[in-house]
Amino acid sequence: MLPKKPAETSVPLNELIHNRWSPRAYSDRAVSREDLIAVLEAARWAASCNNMQPWRYIVATKDDAAEHQRMVECLKTGNQEWAPAAPVLMIALASLMRPNGDENRHAFHDTGAASALLTLEATARGLFVRQMAGIEVDKVRETYAVPDDYGVVAGVALGYQGEPESLPEHRQEPETAPRSRNPLSDMIFAGTFGSTSPLVS
C-alpha cells in the first residue's frame, strides 16, 4: 500500500488540503497532456498584486528525455537522488519588475500562490507535487537563459505517487512518517508581533 498522510487539522478542512502532501517517491506513470495543462491553467488563475501575474514555469517531461535530464542537472545533489523518477519537472520563475520599472516586491509571494493552486489542482487529479528549494540558481539561469529581471524561485516535481522502497534507504523513513505542523498559536498574532491572538490561544 502506498502511504497516505492526511493532515491532522484542528478543524475540518477541504479534502484537497487534508490529503495533500509532498512525496519524493514517484512512479513511472506518465502525466497526460490534459492533466498537465490543467494544473498550469490553475496556476494561471492565481491572485496577484495588481494582477501582474509574475509567475513563469519552465517545464520538462520525460517525453523528451534529454530536456528532462537537463532540468535534473539544475537540481542540488540531494534532489537528484529522487527527482529523476518524476515524469514532470518544472522551474518556477518570478518577474521582479513592475511595468513602470519599479521593483515588484510581491513577485515571489504571488508565484508561490500560483504554485499552491497548481498543487491543489494536481491533488484533485490524483497527482502529487513536491516543491524544491534545492536548485542550482546560477545553473538554471545559464541553462535556460533566464533574464536578470526574473527571480529563480523553486523547482517542482509532478507525477503519480511511487513506492517508498524505490527511494534511497535514508529517504524511505521520512516518506512514511506522519506529517506535522507548528500550532496556530505560533503563527497567529494580535496587537504586537509574538502576542498570540485570542482566536487561537
Give a short overview.
The chain has 201 residues and is of the alpha+beta class. It has helices spanning 15-19, 33-44, 65-72, 77-80, 107-124, 137-144, 169-176, and strands at residues 55-61, 88-95, 128-132, 150-159. It has a single domain, classed as 3-Layer(aba) Sandwich (NADH Oxidase).
Spatial extent as radius of gyration: 18 Å
Distance N terminus to C terminus? Answer: 38 Å
- Named at the architecture level, the CATH assignment is 3-Layer(aba) Sandwich
Helix share, percent: 25-40%
- Major sheet summary line: 4 strands, antiparallel
What's the CATH class label?
Answer: Alpha Beta
Give me the number of helical elements.
7
Structural class by secondary-structure content: alpha+beta
What fold name stands as the CATH topology?
NADH Oxidase
Q: Would you tell me the overall average pLDDT?
A: 97
User: Please, how many domains?
Assistant: 1
Strands in their spatial order, largest beta sheet: 1-2-4-3
Q: What percent strand?
A: 5-15%
How many E-type strands?
A: 4
CATH superfamily, called what?
A: NADH Oxidase
Report on this model:
The chain is 31% helix and 15% strand. It has 201 residues and is of the alpha+beta class. A 4-stranded antiparallel beta sheet has the order 1-2-4-3, with helices on both faces. The longest helix is centred in the middle third of the chain and has 18 residues, at 107-124. The chain has helices spanning 15-19, 33-44, 65-72, 77-80, 107-124, 137-144, 169-176, and strands at 55-61, 88-95, 128-132, 150-159. The mean pLDDT is 97. Helix 2 runs antiparallel to helix 5. It has a single domain (15-162), classed as NADH Oxidase (3-Layer(aba) Sandwich), CATH 3.40.109.10. The protein contains 7 helices and 4 strands.
